[in-house]
Amino acid sequence: MRAFYKRNQLKIITIVYWFLLLYIVAALILWFVELTQQNDYMASMRLVELNKDDPDYLSKYSHILDLRKRKTFQYVGEGATFLILILVCAVFVYRAVRRQIKLSHQQQNFMMAVTHELKTPIAVTRLNLETLQKRRLEEEKQQKLIANTLQEANRLNSLCNNILVASQLDAGHYQLNRQEINLSNIVEDSIKDFAERFTGRRFICNIQPGIYTEGESLLLQMLVNNLVDNAIKYSPKDSTVTIALEQNNNSLLFSVADEGEGIPGEEKKKVFEKFYRVGDEATRKAKGTGLGLYLCKRIVKDHKGSIAIKDNQPGGTVFIVTLSALKTA
Ligand code: ATP
Ligand code: MG
């Protein structure tokens, strides 16, 4: 029962919420109808009590009708104000609750993912070090274990950087240290690093040398790494990742294209939300925290640029980052 509630929390809350709202609106309408009927009844009673021989009969008659009209206006006015207030508040509260539930789901997903992402590299590193300590291995095997341990340490490092920078950017504590940056070098270094880590992968690089921008080196490295990491993570092992960097007058274009499954149209905006990951956490194979693209968007925004997603042909995704270039080509 509890599991069912947890799984369908948003649906159940939506149904209960709209039921309550309908009930309130129906009660308001009923209240309005009853008041108008009562008003009509009171007016007709007063009219019956009037004496036709009274010299003021006509003025009293029109006064009663006037009173009835004024009361009806009052009820209509008050009813409409209540109805508008209730509807506005209902929409506001519903949206806030919905956002909160979604955020809490995403945070739960994030906690599950981050626990796994932290534990795996630590466990692998520990096992590798214990093996190196206990057994005398051949040189080649030793190097393989060391390389594997380094890879896990790198993963842990980029995960920690993502989490730290995201929380600093969110809290507004991050001081952007703007410098003249050679982006071509950053992209080339990053690709070199990925090519060493993923030896079976094919990378096509069209990097125009000597492209400069103003910004923070660490953040730009994170931007490049996150996009290339995604392209590798979300496409088949034997497919190609194409990375390009070029300058167009005063702006520079950095793009990462893969041949993976692609991102469906309606998800293209959502993937930049914090902790958002396409699909279901329980069935998803690729591990991650959903922070990478959120960070990319923040970094690009802080560098006064833009980031867009396009479909690759015949399949896959292309991420295109536009930033302002420092020196014209
Ligand atoms: P993290 O980068 O924090 O380790 P992550 O890769 O899941 O985790 P993001 O980089 O923010 O998080 O990506 C969000 C989601 O967007 C991913 O979970 C994935 O579903 C989708 N996505 C991102 N890049 C691609 C891509 N190149 N191809 C297909 N889907 C992608
Ligand atoms: Mg990612």
Can you tell me about this structure?
This protein is of the alpha+beta class. It has two domains: about 1-105; about 180-325, 2-Layer Sandwich (Heat Shock Protein 90). Helix content is about 60%, strand content about 15%. It has helices at about 1-5, 10-50, 55-135, 140-170, 185-195, 215-235, 290-300, and strands at about 180, 200-205, 210-215, 240-250, 250-255, 305-310, 315-325. The protein has a five-stranded mixed beta sheet. Strands 1-3 form a two-stranded antiparallel sheet. Strand 4 and strand 5 form a beta hairpin. Helix 2 packs antiparallel against helix 3 (about 55-135). The radius of gyration is 33 Å and the shape is elongated. The model has no long low-confidence stretch (mean pLDDT about 90). The structure holds adenosine-5'-triphosphate and magnesium ion. Adenosine-5'-triphosphate binds near residues 289 and 290.
Secondary-structure blueprint of this entry?
Elements lengths: L1 H6 L1 H41 L7 H78 L4 H33 L7 E4 H15 L4 E6 L4 E4 L1 H17 L6 E9 L2 E7 L34 H11 L3 E6 L5 E8 L5
Helix pairs in contact: 2-3, 3-4, 4-7, 5-6, 6-7
Magnesium ion (MG) binds next to helix 6.
